[in-house]
Amino acid sequence: MAQDEEELRALRGHNPPHAATIIHTDQQAISAKGDSMSGSGTSVPWTRRVLHFCSPTRRLPILSWIRRYDGEDSTSDLIAGITLGLTMIPQSIAYATIAGLPTQYGLYAALMGSLVYVFVGTVKEVSIGPTSLMSLLTLQYTAGRPPGYVVVLAFASGLVELAMGAFRLGFLVCFISAPVTSAFTSATALIIIGVQLRNLLGIPRPGSGTAGGGGFFGTVLNVLSRLNEATLGDTALGVSCIALLVALQQLPRFTSARRTSRLHRTLWYVSLARNALVVLGSAFLAYRLAASSGDGSVPFHLSGNVEPGLPSFQWPMRGVTVGNTTVPFLEVTAQLGSGLLLVPLVAVLANVAIAKAFASEIAVDATQELLALGLCNVVGSCFRAMPTTGAFTRSAVSHASGVRTPLSGLYSALLTLLALGVLTPYFYYIPRATLAAVLIAAVTSMVDLGIVRRLPRPPRHSAVDVASWALCFTVCLLLGVELGLLCGMTVSLIEPLRHSLWPRADCTTVRDPSTGVRYRRIRPRNVPALLYPGVDRLRKIVLAEAHLQTAEVVGTSGEPALPLVLDCKRLVALDFSSVRALRELTQQVHRLGGTLYLRDVPSAWRSSLQLAETPYGLALP
């Protein structure tokens, strides 16, 4: 991931200035309109808000930018779309193998994801399709089951994403911190590498596979114990493909972009198409070896037959046929378990993060991106596609190719459709070791172990980030990615919960400039809301201040204690437990011989608290 971001920064110079404005201008207007409506609160009728939410120009962004589309945009999108397609097709074939699916399922996902996003997508660089992360999660929940379970998983994930978009639940991904995301993706990349070592070395798969086989270490140990089953042909081909992919990736660095721009551009395109070149070259080699041998044998394992053409429309809710029986849809979803929530959550996290990375000029419409991702999965599942999300590598390729609009996805989809209709007979000759090499080379950049050195550096940085990263990374490798993500999220929430449970306050003596009255002000300084987790802590602060005032009165002149005023200016939320606690706290302070008032109380609270005006502030009954 870190390497992809570095390449992205280096390639930003290839993007024309106009490319950053064609879509974003209209989207800014839409966002501004939405903000003005939402800011008016209850003054806007709910029917009007619903109509605005369902507005065709808002939910079909293509209606906004297609009116400005011109020949220059078409040329740029054509180049970007073809370049992206050459990257997407071999990746999709490889990602299908991670999920334990036939090759065509990855191509179905690439086709439908690219096509649907043209109409509903908002970020021109985002490429929707199969990814290594989605493939591994799919394998986690559907290993050993028919491909129909994968289709149902994609359909259910799409429904969850649509629901998240409809209810504007995109903020949920904010609960996954950056260290947890890094640990999750790094562990996932290592797991994928461990799983693909079998194909790279030509070791046969176990009889009944699981996603992890005892976790990452169990998978690696299993491969090491079966090294005697490795074949020389697969190993030689796989290692050679990895070396060739790395060499092709470094090609643009051998020339200066300024002095020899044409040569640099040529080498850059060759580098982008490296996956396609390696896959086609290996397939051609296998075809020639099979043709030259008498029995059609080759010294390495091949992918096998691929179903040609686009499948017909099939409604996923009809269930899954297993043998001579049909498993009902609800029973299939029950067997998928937590995957119905984890798969869409991770997909949303990846897609929104990629959209934010590329749409740096404007704020990303997260709601529309959720709806777009949900539609890609729902529509794709009707054509037997596996779960999809945005891919950082492909999005970087699209950005570097000078993409202008999401219409570039149409050209990628057409290229994928051409592959399904014409090239599928030749997919039989693609060696498995080559696909494993493509995957290993692609996910290696996702491993970001260097973040461990960066985490403790800031002087005020909490050890919680280090702990959440370490726990998430370890549990993902040992027990599974879904449990690791949950553990990492739990630990990372300790820091914000600590501030909610342990609010702090500044206590100072203040003189009111208008009345000259002195009082003791208590101002919470690290909590934005007064909610039930922090009530007891605030109660202790106020009572401690009340005891202090009483002690000063008794031990000195006997003058009346200064009234206590709770400053609510920085608080924006209040719950029922806090309302009741404030009333009880007022009575406790009164029994100690003091008084408690509230100041700068939001108007929405006043009716709930039944406050009365006083010279010091608002008093509770």
Structure description:
The chain is mainly alpha-helical. It is 61% helix and 6% strand. The chain has helices spanning 2-11, 24-39, 46-53, 56-59, 62-65, 71-98, 103-120, 132-142, 147-166, 178-201, 215-225, 232-249, 261-272, 274-292, 329-336, 339-358, 366-381, 392-400, 408-427, 432-443, 451-454, 463-479, 481-492, 494-501, 532-555, 576-591, 603-609, and strands at residues 128-129, 320-322, 325-327, 389-390, 505-511, 518-524, 564-567, 596-599, 612-613, 618-619. β9 and β10 (618-619) form a beta hairpin. It is elongated, with a radius of gyration of 30 Å.
Structure summary, number of beta strands? 10
Average pLDDT reading: 81
Low-confidence runs: 1-42, 208-212
Helix count? 27
Q: What is the strand content?
A: 5-15%
End-to-end separation in angstroms reads 58 Å
Overall morphology = elongated
What structural class is derived from the secondary structure elements?
Answer: mainly alpha
Instruction: Describe the strand arrangement of the main beta sheet, using strand numbers.
Output: 5-6-7-8-10-9
User: How much helical structure, as a percent, in the residues?
Assistant: 55-70%
Biggest sheet architecture: 6 strands, mixed
Radius of gyration equals 30 Å
List keywords for this structure.
621 residues; mainly alpha; 6-stranded mixed beta sheet; 27 helices; single chain
Summarize the structure.
This protein has helices spanning 2-11, 24-39, 46-53, 56-59, 62-65, 71-98, 103-120, 132-142, 147-166, 178-201, 215-225, 232-249, 261-272, 274-292, 329-336, 339-358, 366-381, 392-400, 408-427, 432-443, 451-454, 463-479, 481-492, 494-501, 532-555, 576-591, 603-609; strands at residues 128-129, 320-322, 325-327, 389-390, 505-511, 518-524, 564-567, 596-599, 612-613, 618-619. With 621 residues, it is mainly α. Strand 9 (612-613) and strand 10 (618-619) form a beta hairpin.
